[in-house]
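Moderator note: this is an archived Q&A kept for reference. The question asked for a predicted structure of one protein chain; the sequence and the answer are reproduced below.
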Amino acid sequence: MPALVLANAQCRATFAAHGAELTGLVATATGLEYVWAADPAVWGRHAPVLFPIVGRLPDDTYLHEGQAYRLGQHGFARDQEFAVLRHTETELAFRLTDSAETRANYPFAFELTITYTLRGTTLAVRWDVRNPAGAPGNELLFSIGAHPAFRCPLLPGEQFEDYYFEFDHPVTLSKQLLRGGLRSGETAPVLHQEATLPLTYELFADDALVFANYDFTRVALRAHGAPHFVRLRFDGFPYLGLWTKGPGAAFVCIEPWHGVASPVGPPQELRDKEGILALAPGQAFAATYEIEIG
């Protein structure tokens, strides 16, 4: 299927039905592309949607009512074909529902709708998760998260280290330490009452920076001495990940999450996993975040 496009006078966004994934975001005035090109030799994704889990499970395994099931890191939605519900010049909606394939390792009925709306230089992303099950007691257990990757550096002649994260106010942050993609239960300080975090590859030497219990709602990616930026707004998200692949990778991810990786240890019941959301039959969950470019 050819790329699906949203466009206005300021911006052009492209998408793929595979994974309902944002694949490009270009400023019309400059022609500047902000989204990572998904070079398969480095990291072959642009902005995957993480569902029905965020992060890794021990041995890629969880339990549900005592039975073991397998799910790879970040779940399966990013590798599924979504149906296109509607497509106008400035709005695009995708939907994924459960199937025999998904129920084999995720025994839940679900309806996931992802809506992208372009307004000026801002792309709003809305997730709607619904439990359509008809029988009483069939809870839907899930997490959902964003994983957009932005080109860094954005312009020729710049370096990764020219960039920094800018928070909406001075923050004190500690990251949750990971071991093999699982949370070790330990933390390490990152910032103390500072509004910016300089980018270095060493910052990500121990995997992603994972934050919880933070009080900011905006993070911008900026370069010293340059006007261009990417800013994410994510009200009400309990977790945030910041990540790049490693030295030389020309991108960085800003990842608001409703969910987080499992702790080190044996597989656990999915309902006991930190960050898991539960919907009774007929209930729905919605969350929105925004990407602004300049």
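Archived answer notes: The longest strand covers residues 163-179.
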